[in-house]
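Late entry, adenosine-5'-triphosphate complex.
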Amino acid sequence: MPALQRILLKLSGEALMGEEAFGIHRGTIERIVAEVAEVNRLGVQVAIVIGGGNLFRGVAGGAVGMDRATADYMGMLATVMNALAIGDALERGGTKARVMSAIAIDQVVEPYVRPKALQYLEEGKVVVFAAGTGNPFFTTDTAAALRGAEIGAEIVLKATKVDGVYTADPKKDPNATRYQRISFDEAMVRQLQVMDATAFALCRDQNLPVRVFSIFKPGALKRVVLGEDEGTLVHV
Ligand SMILES: Nc1ncnc2c1ncn2[C@@H]1O[C@H](COP(=O)(O)OP(=O)(O)OP(=O)(O)O)[C@@H](O)[C@H]1O
Ligand SMILES: O=c1ccn([C@@H]2O[C@H](COP(=O)(O)O)[C@@H](O)[C@H]2O)c(=O)[nH]1
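Prediction complete; structure with ligand written out below:
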């Protein structure tokens, strides 16, 4: 029996690369999608926000001399490609899915319309939100917080490359230790970079908890949905 009825799952774009240097690795996306389908079959309403780091990051474009806002729009378009890939993989695996974009791109993806998204969720379809918030200078973490609040998700599940929130970036500091729970305020005061401060602040203000866990750990998503202890809970 799931402990959660409606979740906003933030999937790392970079995780879609698998062992590759960039892009989308077929086997990896199929494994992730199979885990999403499994929790969907348990009756959990699933909305997904996908990152774009495997294809493009606006800050990187900005750093090499591009106009930052233009680079960010490129980053948002990268998330549209990932969202299409996730939607396609879900449908191929037999799970009904709908992709909705925050940027008008009607020939490719239907636009994000909140009541429509809620209708799809109630019908049991997985909804994949593409193009982040639709605005430059934001991230898909903030989009996850925003859409999570809009659809009344009980929690934002950040499925990422590390298995929780650490005292420091575990990829840089081998002595970093993992928190089981941490408050939004403490995470922001300590400037823990696992999620950007805008996303943390929005979740805190909307009393929307976040659980950070590893996308690479098989079965982790199902364990979270069943209410088992996994990763780190970030709370008010
Ligand atoms: N204190 C910390 N605890 C955990 N991870 C941290 C911390 N500080 C920095 N990180 C880094 O944050 C990363 C996760 O955030 P990041 O925004 O890079 O990924 P993502 O949002 O999952 O991916 P993408 O942007 O591709 O969608 C981890 O891979 C980790 O190396
Ligand atoms: O609301 C948003 C979301 C994303 N972007 C741009 O897209 C890239 C990729 O997203 P990640 O969250 O880093 O995976 C991001 O770097 C931004 O350039 C955006 O502008 N607005």
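The first strand starts at residue 6 and ends at 11. Will revisit in the morning.
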